[in-house]
Structures are given as structure tokens and as C-alpha cells.
Amino acid sequence: MLGTYFYHQNIRKTIIAFGNLFNNITLKHQDADNNDYSEIRVPLAYGPTQKFLARLEQQAELNKPVAITLPRMSFEMNSLKYDPSRKTTATQSFKAVTNDSKIKKVYMPVPYNIGFELNIMAKLNDDVLQIIEQILPFFQPAFTVTVDMVDTIGEKKDIPIVLDDISFRDDYEGDFSTRRILLYTLQFTAKTYLFGPISDSTDSLIRKVQVDMYSSTDVQTARREMRYTVTPDPIDAEPDDDFGFNENWEFLGDAKVYSPVQKTDI
């Protein structure tokens, strides 16, 4: 019901999963003999590109000790849209077992697409190309990550992250005192899900199954001949327990009918 508090952190978890994809990008520098003399882990931060470019513009003189460390990467979420192509029935639900073995009723999640922008900034062309080549081969055009969407019921979803577009910009203008910025911008779409509130199931665990068998398909004259009953062993077994079943066959041969409302033969 609208107004019921719940927070599964579905959007936040998707953002974290996206950022983790690019959190261990490294690049190397070589000397004239192709020997590595430095290895750098490219820093990654959440935020708009304009914020990092502004720091360069505010400290544009090359004689400053440090304006901003390049290369670096930044990313941000820039859109959130409903995806009708993955729509399911609004009232469809499923049962889930929580970590403390309680049965919960969960409605099917709502599909949403989250747009992301990944920006790669560098001052050397070889630096930015090293970073790009460590990313692009994994997106053809999608790369799938698994996200634990709802911790309490252990619900995990595979989230495809699709590479939509790549653009390039070289902000090298002005005289020799101006800093050069190579900027690659990659646009992504994460096909995630949003879960609604999780409520206690109104249906208890099924602990007994009973089937009456009749001698004919004519409901007016048919007489029941046999009853089959099965129960879990032990009777108080929980879904995660190791249990068996007790089966019982009973011959009746009467004209009575079992009433599920009165829970007796009439």
C-alpha cells in the first residue's frame, strides 16, 4: 500500500555495482626500452564532470604544485526511466523465505532503466587509450552483474549494463600555459528492478495434502473409493529443514464428500 515505509536500497545498490566495475583500472608507463617504470591505479569518484573541470579552470597555471591528478575517472547517475518492455503482471507475487525462516509475500519487481555517464580524463593520449581498452572489450554491448536486491529474502537479480554511446573531446585551446584535457564520455544503461514492500504471507505452510479418488467422473452418481493423505515428517518441519513424508491410503467406499469449509465428511 502506498504510504507504507520500506527501503530496499535497490537504486543505491545498482549505483555501487556500476561503480565497482571500474574501481580497479590501472595503467602503466614504459621507458624507451619498454620497461615499466610506473603503475597507476586510476582514481574513481562519483560526481559530475563539470566539478572536476572547474578545479582545473580555477587553477589553470602550470606553475601550481597540483591542480588535479590526471588521469582520473568520474561517474554519475543521470536518468531513471520505467522500462515497459520488461513489464510483468502488476498483481503477480511469489512467496519467499526470510533468513529467520518466515514466509513473506513479495510482489514482482518493477523494471526501471538507470542511465549512467562515465567520464575518463587524462592529459596524455596513451593514458586514456589504455583505460578505454580495458573497458570496451567487456561490453558487447552488455555486461551483466549480480546484485543482492533484497537482503532479508536473499533475492538476487542479474542486471545487464549496456554500453550505449562513446564520445571524445580534446579541450586543448589557448596558449602553452593552458592545461590540456582529453575527455572520453561513455553512456550506459543499467536494466535494474525496484521492489515494493514485503508483507507477511496470509498463507501458512502446507502441512497436509488430502486427495479423494472416485470410481467415476460423473459427479452426480460417483462414489469415492479411496483417500490418499501425505504429511511432512516431522509435522512441524520448516522449509529449510531436512524432512521426509508420511503417506497413508484409506479405503472408504461411501457416498460422502469432504467439505474443506467444515473440514469434515458430509
Summarize the structure.
The chain has 266 residues and is mainly beta.
Structure description:
- Helix content is 12%, strand content 45%.
- The chain has three helices and 16 strands.
- It has two domains: 10-83 and 107-196, STM4215-like (2-Layer Sandwich); 209-265, no CATH class.
- It has a six-stranded mixed sheet. A three-stranded antiparallel sheet has the order 5-6-11, with no helix packed on it.
- It starts with 9 loop residues before the first helix and ends with a strand.
- Mean pLDDT is 82; it is low at 60-67.
- With 266 residues, it is mainly beta.
- The protein has helices at 10-21, 49-58, 125-133, and strands at 26-30, 36-41, 44-46, 72-82, 93-97, 103-107, 110-122, 142-150, 155-170, 182-194, 198-200, 209-214, 224-233, 244-254, 258-259, 264-265.
In the CATH classification, which architecture of the largest domain applies? 2-Layer Sandwich
Name the beta content range.
Answer: over 45%
Describe the global form. Answer: elongated
Low-confidence stretches: 60-67
Along the chain, the helix and strand elements come as HEEEHEEEEHEEEEEEEEE
Distance between the termini: 41 Å
**Class inferred from helices and paired strands:** mainly beta
Strand order of the largest sheet: 3-4-7-10-9-8
**Overall tally of structural domains:** 2
The helix count comes to: 3
The level-1 CATH class of the largest domain: Alpha Beta
Assign a percent range to the helix content.
10-25%
Summed over residues and divided by their number, the pLDDT gives a mean of 82
- The radius of gyration over CA amounts to 31 Å
Tally of strands: 16
Classify the fold: give the CATH topology of the largest domain: STM4215-like
CATH evolutionary superfamily of the largest domain? Myoviridae tail sheath stabiliser
Describe the largest sheet: 6 strands, mixed
Oligomer: single chain
